[in-house]
Design goal:
globular, single chain, Pectate Lyase C-like, 30% strand, 17-stranded parallel sheet, mainly beta
Length: 348
């Protein structure tokens, strides 16, 4: 096991510690971060790697921060675009992040455009006590869809790379944003995470956002303020996003937030035994105008609780699972794959 430390008497930056590692991932490596603010854009392209803060209690004091937004015009006259904004970029297998914060402080989407905090593309990725802070497009779970809708829409490090399915496991994480802030094609399980919908019409810093869910304000009619997910599950992939025992909160008005909308026509998102604040719209799901996708999308819930749980008024293209159907969704069933991966075993 290779061990590196970033902080006093260690490496001065995370980037320098990463560069010191052998390119081969044959030997496991762990980089431990001292509490502090790390103004770095990281590329984690070596597998069998753990990047960790010192403890879960110090996760909010161990911050990797960036501020790139998609609307920025670069020297060549072209917009930066979504997939060149990430603060942390993962393109490797068997990577684990824990006990730290990753943020993108570019600002609300109407000003900065999309602004990714974490771009996670790989297989057997684990995130434990990780805080992801941003606005629009906070967390991208690769792979990209096969084809962009607009030319140049996927401009970035993996624009021309093969689209390889990946499995992700998020546990005890805090994920914050507003428009489509968990999006992409990965098969991902979210266990006991807090999903916080920020009101883009409020002037909040990335460190804000710990208030109670819902509130007494009323959302303007037909004026959604947030979409928790925008899955692009590839055709033929059995599972997309599964949220289990998660808390859905935020500072948006009542009824102004949707559980998800389909970035692509085979989007799959399921919520199991989740606590939903009053900010969740009674319809729950938005179709993004893709009526033709009704036969191929899978939007479902089971045992939702809280003021935002409204099974009788959910969108007709979604469904409520039976107890038997819900019992088929387990970490093993969703993530194990042919290699029988068990992400629970990766936790200390």
């Amino acid at each position: 096991m290779i061990k590196k430390y970033v902080g006093k008497n260690g490496y001065p930056t995370i980037t320098s510690a990463l560069k010191s590692l052998p390119a081969s991932s044959d030997e496991a490596a762990t980089i431990t971060l001292a509490p502090g603010i790390y103004r770095e854009h990281l590329e984690l392209i070596r597998g069998n790697l753990t990047l960790t803060g010192e403890s879960p209690e110090l996760a909010d004091q161990t911050v990797i921060t960036g501020d790139l937004g998609a609307k920025e015009i670069l020297e060549d006259g072209i917009k930066r675009g979504t997939f060149r904004t990430q603060t942390v970029f993962i393109h490797a297998n068997d990577v684990k992040l824990e006990n730290l914060t990753i943020e993108n402080t570019a600002g609300p989407g109407k000003n900065a455009g999309q602004a990714i905090a974490l771009y996670a593309d790989g297989d057997r990725l684990v995130f434990h006590h990780v805080r992801l802070l941003g606005n629009q497009d906070t967390l991208f779970t690769g792979p990209l869809p096969e084809k962009e809708i607009e030319p140049g829409g996927f401009r970035g490090p993996l624009e021309f790379a093969p689209r390889i399915p990946g499995r992700h496991f998020y546990r005890h994480c805090y994920i914050e944003g507003n428009i489509d802030f968990i999006f992409g094609g990965a098969c991902a399980w979210f266990e006991e995470c807090e999903i916080f919908a920020r009101n883009p019409e409020k002037n909040l810093s990335c460190q804000d956002g710990q208030g109670e869910a819902g509130g007494e304000e009323k959302a303007q009619e037909n004026h959604p303020l947030a979409f928790l997910t925008a899955a692009s599950t590839p055709p033929g992939q059995k599972y997309g996003y599964v949220f289990h025992k998660c808390r859905l909160g935020g500072d948006c008005p009542a009824g102004s937030v949707y559980l998800g909308r389909p970035w692509r026509d085979h989007a799959k998102t399921v919520y199991l035994s989740c606590d939903m604040g009053s900010l969740i719209h009674p319809a729950g799901w938005d179709d993004w105008g893709k009526v033709g996708a009704y036969p191929t999308i899978c939007y479902a819930e089971y045992d939702s609780s809280g003021a935002g749980a409204a099974p009788q008024s959910r969108a007709l293209f979604s469904r409520q699972l039976t107890e038997n159907e819900a019992s088929a969704y387990t970490v093993t069933a969703v993530l194990s794959g042919e290699d029988h991966w068990n992400p629970i075993n990766t936790e200390q």
